[in-house]
Amino acid sequence: GLLMLALAYPATDLNLTAGDNRGVPKTTQATKGLVLLEDTLGAGSLSPNQIVIDTGRRDGAWSANSVDAQRALAASLRADEEIDPQTVVSAGDYVDTGGKPAAPFVAEARKANLVSADGRYVQVRAAGIQDSGSEASMDLVDRIRDEYVPAAGFRPSDEVVVTGAAAFGVD
Question: What is the pLDDT along the chain (171 residues), one digit of tens a residue?
Fold first, then answer.
C-alpha cells in the first residue's frame, strides 16, 4: 500500500486543462476543416470567450447603464492583443444609446444570440488568437474576469460570468 502511494504522489503536481486541438491528427475531413479555420480565423475563433450578463430585469440588456457597460467591455476586449478585435460582438453594438432599439435591431441581436427574447440576458463574445487550452488563453480569461468586467461598469446587481472552453480550463 505504501509503495502505491509513493508511486502515485507525483500525480498531485499535475495541472490539467480542458485540452485543446493541437494534438488532433489532421487526417479526417473534420480535422482538415479545423486546421483551415485555425489558419484563416485563428485557433481561438473555434471557442470564443463568452461573457454572459444577467441584468435581473426584462429589457435590462437595453438600459443605458447596460449598453454603456457592454461597450466599455467590448472596447477593453478589442484592445487586448490576445483577442482578434474583429470577433468582439455585443448587443451594445446595435444601439446608439440606452433604451430598447427598434424591432429590426432587436431581431439582429437575437439572431446573433446576443440577447434573450425578454432582454434580461445578454452576452458579449470575443475570440482569442490562441487555442483554448493554451496558457495565454487561460491568462486572458483571468484578465477578462479580474480587470475588464469590473472596469466595465455593470450594475452591482448584475450577475456577470465568463464562460467558454478557455474558462472551463481555468475553472
Answer: 676 666 666 655 555 544 555 566 777 787 777 677 667 666 666 678 999 999 999 999 999 999 999 999 999 999 999 999 999 999 998 888 878 888 999 999 999 999 999 999 999 999 998 877 889 999 999 999 999 999 999 999 999 999 988 888 888
SS3 (DSSP) at 65: helix
Residues with Cβ within 8 Å of 152's Cβ and at least 6 positions away in sequence, in order, are 69, 70, 72, 73, 76
Measured CA angle at 39 (ends 38, 45), to 5 deg: 35
SS3 62: helix
Order of strands, sheet of 121-126, starting from the edge strand that comes earlier in the sequence: 89-90, 121-126, 49-54, 159-163
Query: Which cell goes with 143?
Result: 484578465
* Alpha carbon separation from 109 to 46, 92, 140, 154 (Å, rounded): 21, 9, 25, 19
CB 94 within 8 A of CB 108: yes
Q: What is the DSSP string of 123-153?
A: EEEE-BSS-TTSHHHHHHHHHIIIIIHHHHT
